[in-house]
Amino acid sequence: MRQTIRFIRKGHMVELDQMAPTTMLLDYLREVERATGTKEGCGEGDCGACTVAVGRLKDGKLAYEPVNACIHMLGQVDGCEIVTVEDIAEDDGKLHPIQAAMVQSHASQCGFCTPGFVMSLFTLYQSTDGKLRRDEVNDWIAGNLCRCTGYRPIVDAAVAASAGTRNDRFRVAARDTAGLLSFLADNDDVFIGDS
After folding, report:
1. What is the CATH number of the domain that holds 41?
2. What DSSP assignment string belongs to 89-123?
3. What pLDDT, in 10s, does the model give residues 48-92?
4. Which residues on neighbouring strands pair with residue 15, listed in sequence order?
């Protein structure tokens, strides 16, 4: 039995102990890492403002899924990779294709919900090849709410980003990330809290 939580952040393993068992992923990201791009909207998993990407191995391959960080306990990401909106641009500042398409499509107004939409679309971008259909995008972003604008520009952004070749740094690093996740997959039970 292990008493630490281990996960991948920015290509490196993070190992935490002395964390409260009730610590939410959102609280860890905002308060410990100061990754404040991930927003708290409803605190109940309804609005999607807190969406992050969680990478896991599925059939030996890296797969990303959107997760509401406000209702996802930190211990649930043991053995996973966590990707936030701050992580997806290139090191030189070049926007990820999803971010660039959101700008081109004028898909943001007040901006509060934008990081959550970007991360949901990032996971869709990573999980598919070929041009996306509008109905696929609508289904994928069903857990994200925007009170300022219609959803058409957001869907336009996803369709536009999917039309290009998909060779972002996450796809390039997928094999290395899968190797790190394999290393973390020790199948140990994790006990956090008082013994």
Report:
1. 3.10.20.30
2. S-TTSPPPHHHHHHHHTT--SS-SSHHHHHHHHHH
3. 999 999 999 999 899 999 999 999 999 999 999 999 999 999 989
4. 6
